[in-house]
Amino acid sequence: MIEVDFTLPESALTVQQGVGDICARYDMDYWQRCEAEKRWPDEVWAELAKGGWLGLAVPEEFGGGGQGLLELAVATETLAASGAAGGSAFTYVLTPGFGALTLARHGSDEQRAALLPKLASGEIETCFALTEPDAGSNSLAITTSARRDGDDYVVNGQKIWITGVQRATWMLLVTRTIPAAEARPRTNGMTVFLVNVPEAVAAGQLSYRPIPKMGANTTPSNMVFLDDLRVPASSVVGQVDQGALVLWDILNPERILLAASALGGAEVALRVAVSYAKEREVFGRAIGANQAIAFPLAQVKAKIELARLMLYKAAWSFDRQLPCGTEANIAKLTASQAAWEAADAAFQTHGGMAYSLEYPVARLLTDARIGKVAPVTEELLLNYLATQVLGLPRSF
């Protein structure tokens, strides 16, 4: 007999409670101010670090919680649902997700010993640099090159939409050590490096320019320029030319954690909409009594619960080193759709008042829209399901 248990493990429930207790001290106005002032949520970040909630995926021997992606996803969802929504909750992806989880799985003994304790404590932070202006979502087509020169590699290229460079001590940088045109198979020839950002900036080998954004301004995103950047060969994460193996273990967790972020954002939008629908009276009754208002909100609730099931399944599969690409893509697709529909329903519920910045609806709407195009477009997620899962012919 096969038993299926849909309850969260005690470890995840503890995370949900601990992160939730911290977030409960910061109301919606706090997150509105962070967005308006374009500033990192320093107060929340400091409390998460103090409570040990940044090192969930760091092995216990390095001062972390020894847990996995499921706990990280629950933490991200809880943070987003508290009022941070999708944009601000991305702060949790940069270091616990990109940095700690990746190094715990793929870092050398020296890298793990040097960096994991500081990542767990929040003493250092990380960012992730993959996307390029010309390659876009085609990650295999990146052209940032790394060539061996003695004990170092020399890196040249550009990256775009790199979030959190300003705060990062270390950057996980994806390069080509074999040009894409020469690589057989195409996934060969990719190499991931750890780059010390402050040192590279001081040497004039790495520079960045912030990109003005319509939302998610608690975490600035940037153009990054790499000019004869020298990186020690000891800074390779995983193996030279085999970086695709590391990359998949970054991209699948990224999609899962951003699905968690979107799901929390959907919860916020639904909560805001329901509250307004209960309080706002027109024609002598609360507008929530009208099916035109109530039914779209009920549909959103159903979609949130469905997306959450796939989110937890994807994270659970990753933690058990089971194939999770399909689950991660479905989780990202459905959670982002739920977030957008929730924000749109909240906007419609508020009517003209949705335009007022006294309400959080505008922030929730811009946050939710991100998920339909980043870090991978909805169309590419659907293309994956069509070709890789359903076996339909490729269009290219």
UniProtKB/TrEMBL annotation:
<keyword id="KW-0274">FAD</keyword>
<dbReference type="InterPro" id="IPR009075">
    <property type="entry name" value="AcylCo_DH/oxidase_C"/>
</dbReference>
<keyword id="KW-0560">Oxidoreductase</keyword>
<dbReference type="GO" id="GO:0070991">
    <property type="term" value="F:medium-chain fatty acyl-CoA dehydrogenase activity"/>
</dbReference>
<dbReference type="InterPro" id="IPR009100">
    <property type="entry name" value="AcylCoA_DH/oxidase_NM_dom_sf"/>
</dbReference>
<dbReference type="Pfam" id="PF00441">
    <property type="entry name" value="Acyl-CoA_dh_1"/>
</dbReference>
<feature type="domain" description="Acyl-CoA dehydrogenase/oxidase C-terminal">
    <location>
        <begin position="242"/>
        <end position="389"/>
    </location>
</feature>
<feature type="domain" description="Acyl-CoA dehydrogenase/oxidase N-terminal">
    <location>
        <begin position="13"/>
        <end position="123"/>
    </location>
</feature>
<dbReference type="InterPro" id="IPR006091">
    <property type="entry name" value="Acyl-CoA_Oxase/DH_mid-dom"/>
</dbReference>
<dbReference type="InterPro" id="IPR046373">
    <property type="entry name" value="Acyl-CoA_Oxase/DH_mid-dom_sf"/>
</dbReference>
<comment type="similarity">
    <text>Belongs to the acyl-CoA dehydrogenase family.</text>
</comment>
<dbReference type="InterPro" id="IPR036250">
    <property type="entry name" value="AcylCo_DH-like_C"/>
</dbReference>
<dbReference type="Pfam" id="PF02770">
    <property type="entry name" value="Acyl-CoA_dh_M"/>
</dbReference>
<dbReference type="Pfam" id="PF02771">
    <property type="entry name" value="Acyl-CoA_dh_N"/>
</dbReference>
<protein>
    <submittedName>
        <fullName>Acyl-CoA dehydrogenase</fullName>
        <ecNumber>1.3.8.7</ecNumber>
    </submittedName>
</protein>
<feature type="domain" description="Acyl-CoA oxidase/dehydrogenase middle">
    <location>
        <begin position="127"/>
        <end position="228"/>
    </location>
</feature>
<dbReference type="InterPro" id="IPR013786">
    <property type="entry name" value="AcylCoA_DH/ox_N"/>
</dbReference>
<keyword id="KW-0285">Flavoprotein</keyword>
<dbReference type="InterPro" id="IPR037069">
    <property type="entry name" value="AcylCoA_DH/ox_N_sf"/>
</dbReference>
